[in-house]
Design a protein that fits this description.
By secondary structure, the protein is α/β, with parallel strands linked by helices. The chain is globular.
Length: about 240
């Protein structure tokens, strides 16, 4: 087992355990097929990426986005830190390219080489540390051509389903200690350390994307059923942004 001090930037023990859990990888495709959220983000990407081009999936898992768009003649590249996930992705989508990579460190990829980018299913929220999440978005901006489009999916820190204690705690932190707000530890479903996900508000997510140079074009609030939602029923947001031409 890799010691904590050797974990990649932006990765803690809980995320490392999650990414390398055999049970998680084995059941991931079925989990995504059954998820209304996965269907919602695919439908959003369908509208966001209207014509074939070069697409990078940041945190591709077993390749579900690449599978969908490679069939539509997109040139797809999937990036993930889990070699176990990538092995399955290569089997699922033989006509796409998959690279083992930490989203915080993407210097090996060429500037302005993609038409589209996606970071779905709270992948950005899995990255630990605000400075590392900023690096992920800066890398995304760098990789896109002028006019390139980016879809981001983030979770809501005030989602009612988190329970009133967590939501109240997040509201207090957001007001009195904003630097520490948003990180919410979830029990690890695969026997590892707790998995911490950073949750956003809509405003924080939009300002963060905007601060990287993107222009936010559309925001969709969705519930756990993948349908439009409001208030405390909002599970997260899908944001469509564009690198200015």
């Amino acid at each position: 087992m890799i010691p904590d001090w050797q974990l990649p930037p932006g990765v803690d023990r809980g995320l490392w355990d999650y990414l390398h859990a055999a049970d998680m990888v084995a059941g991931y495709d079925e989990q995504m097929r059954a998820s209304p959220l996965a269907l919602a983000d695919m439908a959003f990407c369908e509208l966001a990426f209207p014509t074939p081009g070069r697409l990078v999936d940041l945190g591709c898992g077993t390749g579900r986005l690449c599978l969908h768009f490679a069939a539509k003649d997109f040139d797809c590249v999937g990036l993930d830190l889990s070699e176990e996930m990538l092995a399955k992705a290569r089997t699922n989508v033989p006509n796409a390219s998959f690279v083992n990579a930490n989203l915080v460190e993407l210097s090996a990829l060429t500037d302005a080489s993609f038409d589209y980018a996606a970071c779905l299913f709270s992948t950005l929220g899995m990255v630990r540390g605000a400075e590392n999440r900023t690096k992920v978005l800066a890398n995304t901006f760098r990789l896109l051509k002028p006019g390139g489009r980016f879809v981001l999916h983030v979770h809501n820190r005030y989602f009612r389903g988190l329970g009133w204690k967590r939501v109240t705690g997040q509201r207090l932190k957001s007001f009195f200690a904003p630097a520490g707000a948003g990180d919410i530890a979830m029990s690890q479903a695969y026997g590892g350390a707790p998995l911490t996900l950073h949750h956003f508000t809509r405003g924080i997510a939009e300002r963060l994307v905007d601060s990287m140079g993107f222009r936010v074009k559309e925001v969709s609030a969705i519930g756990t059923d993948g349908r439009p939602a409001r208030g405390g029923n909002v599970y997260g947001w899908l944001l469509l942004s564009e690198r200015p031409a």
